[in-house]
Amino acid sequence: MTETVYLGAGCFWCVEAVFARLKGVLSVTSGYMGGHIKNPSYREVCLGTTGHAEVIRVEYDPAIISFEELLQVFWVTHDPTTLNRQGADKGTQYRSAIFWTVNSQRLAAENSKENIAAGLWHDPIVTEITQAGPFYQAEDYHQEYYARNPDQAYCSIVIPPKISKLKQKFQHLLKAE
């Protein structure tokens, strides 16, 4: 039995690179959610006018990794205190968001936001917790982007520190390399 959740934590290339390394994560797909037009393109989402967030769809086996463990990784590997921004990436498309698919995820996310994330960060947590809506898969070249483009400038600067933090704090959750 698998479950699915959609997470927004800035650029989906970064978020995908982190969550793809976790045991029990069966697949990670980059895409868009939370906007008001159908089938948005990357170009449209980047303009910030569609209302979509860059997200990843995480399909996972809760018998191997719990939703709460996924949330712990989520809170630690991005800054959930910056509204519509992650690092140099600015705009609503980079917002911190959890799009839940079952009510138990909503409850766990709200609890985790209040009791875990708030203890990790000094500033208020601005992460939205919303029921998942239509998911639009990003263009093929965005899938497994970091794995295929590790030397691309953005990737080589922004993603390695996130992976390093993941390895440092969550070694017990990582797939064997």
Describe this structure in words.
The chain is an alpha+beta fold. The protein has a single domain (3-173), classed as 2-Layer Sandwich (Peptide Methionine Sulfoxide Reductase, Chain A), CATH 3.30.1060. Helix content is 36%, strand content 22%. Strands 7-6-1-3-2-8 form a six-stranded mixed β-sheet, with helices on one face. The two termini are 25 Å apart. The model has no long low-confidence stretch (mean pLDDT 97).
Instruction: Give the name of the CATH superfamily.
Output: Peptide methionine sulphoxide reductase MsrA
- Helix-strand pattern: EHEHEHEEEHEEHH
Number of H/I helices: 6
State the distance separating the first and last CA atoms.
25 Å
Report the CATH architecture.
2-Layer Sandwich
Query: Which sheet architecture does the biggest sheet show?
Result: 6 strands, mixed
Would you state the CATH class? Alpha Beta
- The averaged pLDDT comes out at 97
- For this structure, the CATH topology is Peptide Methionine Sulfoxide Reductase, Chain A
The coarse overall form would be globular
Radius of gyration: 15 Å
Strand content: 15-25%
DSSP strand tally? 8
Low-confidence stretches: none
Provide the helix percentage. Answer: 25-40%
Short description:
With 177 residues, this protein is α+β, with helices and mostly antiparallel strands. The chain has helices spanning 12-19, 42-47, 67-77, 103-120, 145-148, 153-169; strands at residues 3-9, 25-33, 53-60, 85-86, 89-90, 96-100, 128-131, 136-137. The strands form two sheets. The chain has a six-stranded mixed β-sheet, with helices on one face. A two-stranded antiparallel ribbon has the order 4-5.
